[in-house]
Specification:
nine-stranded antiparallel sheet
Length: 396
């Protein structure tokens, strides 16, 4: 198999129109700003132990989801223990509320000037308030249950044992949530995390390294407003998805059938530009056939069994008879280039069948001064390069 995944080191943020999971598609939140706000303020006391200055993993390589769940679990456990202790001192019941109020005042007194400033702070306060309320309700329920059991079965436990069981019962939801969340993001040390996995689209297999930051759509889900894409990358926020892919592929030992595979060529090009100039990189596949202009004008490549919304919307321009549209071929094998007349820039898209069940769709950047013929040549070269680079080599 191709082993380009062993030396890929690209970590480039997704393009604006690149697909993100539906939980991030929110009409009043921009994912990037929301993530920055929450990470930068809501969990500020723990930031130095989790993220470095550029937002990457630092000391602990844990997922963003576990990062938030674990901190919420600690807060839940602390509130539960204080509510439990309030049976002896009523004032202790007000400590979590006063602490949350003080934290809220500090957060909003130090709101940054980034986009959607205050959104992360507001989300954090509401989340912590909900956690506080949940802890109070849970402690109340455990006390009611303990009294009922004691009366029903006439239990007379030693005082130290009764207190121990009460404490364990109070913090059990926090322990359970943190344990489950940790297991969900605990990616095994196997081929699926160190080398790559094989995705099958239609009748064609593609060996994709984790470092390529691909998105795959496992099956059609027409009942969703947004198609669910599973991320296969090295980003900490994608560890749950990678764990799922590892499970589905038996840790990378068997291929996974998907209906769509999406790649951002920006990531691939950035790696090749940095790696292929080295003496070691020049001997690695696919460096011998690579040159920087090969991918620098390509935005994204999609291999799919059926067209998604982006592909369908682009193909809709194919039939338009306008001076700013250049098209050729048909809806099975064709292309379309759209011109922005104000700056004489073009963006071209191309699609063609790969086998009887799948096709490839590629799109260029919007580039001033480049003509459709030049961009179509770039697309053809990029598609040929990717097909050769990602196609598994026959087993000897």
């Amino acid at each position: 198999m191709s082993r380009i995944g062993r030396f890929v080191q690209v970590r480039v943020l997704a393009e604006i129109d690149f697909p993100v999971p539906p939980q991030y598609h929110n009409p009043w939140l921009h994912f990037g700003a929301f993530e920055t706000a929450v990470k930068g303020t809501a969990m500020w006391p723990f930031r130095a132990y989790i993220y470095d200055d550029v937002g990457g993993p630092s000391i602990w390589s844990i997922s963003d989801q576990f990062y938030f769940v674990s901190n919420s679990s600690v807060f839940f456990a602390g509130c539960a223990l204080l509510f439990l202790a309030a049976s002896g001192n009523k004032l202790l019941a007000f400590v979590p509320l006063l602490g949350l109020m003080g934290y809220a005042i500090w957060l909003f007194a130090n709101v940054g000037d980034y986009e959607y400033a205050g959104v992360g702070e507001l989300f954090a306060i509401f989340a912590l308030a909900a956690t506080l309320v949940a802890a109070g309700i849970w402690v109340l329920l455990t006390r009611i249950a303990a009294k009922f059991l004691a009366q029903r079965f006439t239990l007379a436990l030693p005082r130290y044992l009764s207190r121990t069981l009460s404490i364990l019962a109070a913090i059990s939801p926090a322990i359970t949530a943190a344990t489950v969340s940790y297991d969900m993001q605990n990616v095994p040390l196997a081929a699926c995390s160190t080398d790559g996995v094989t995705f099958v689209v239609g009748e064609t297999s593609y060996f994709v390294p984790r470092e390529f930051h691909a998105w795959v759509k496992v099956e059609e889900q027409p009942d969703r407003n947004f198609p669910y894409y599973t991320a296969y990358s090295e980003l900490t926020r994608d560890k749950e998805d990678v764990k799922w892919i590892c499970t589905a592929t038996a840790n990378g030992e068997k291929p996974l059938h998907v209906v769509e595979l999406k790649l951002s060529l920006t990531r691939v090009a950035a790696f090749l530009n940095a790696t292929c100039v080295t003496d070691q990189g020049q001997t690695m596949s696919p460096c011998p056939g690579y040159s920087p202009p090969l991918l620098e004008n390509i935005r994204s490549v999609v291999v799919a069994e059926t067209p998604d919304r982006m592909v369908s919307n682009t193909q809709a321009w194919h039939s338009k008879r306008r001076s700013d549209v250049t098209a050729g071929g048909d809806l099975t094998d064709g292309f379309v280039c759209i011109e922005e007349t104000y700056n004489n820039s073009h963006q071209c898209s191309s699609w063609r069948p790969i086998d009887r069940k799948s096709f490839v769709f590629a799109k260029t950047q919007r580039l001033p001064g480049r003509q459709p013929e030049e961009l179509m040549h770039d697309l053809d070269a990029a598609i040929a390069f990717l097909q050769a680079a990602l196609t598994p080599e026959p087993s000897e």
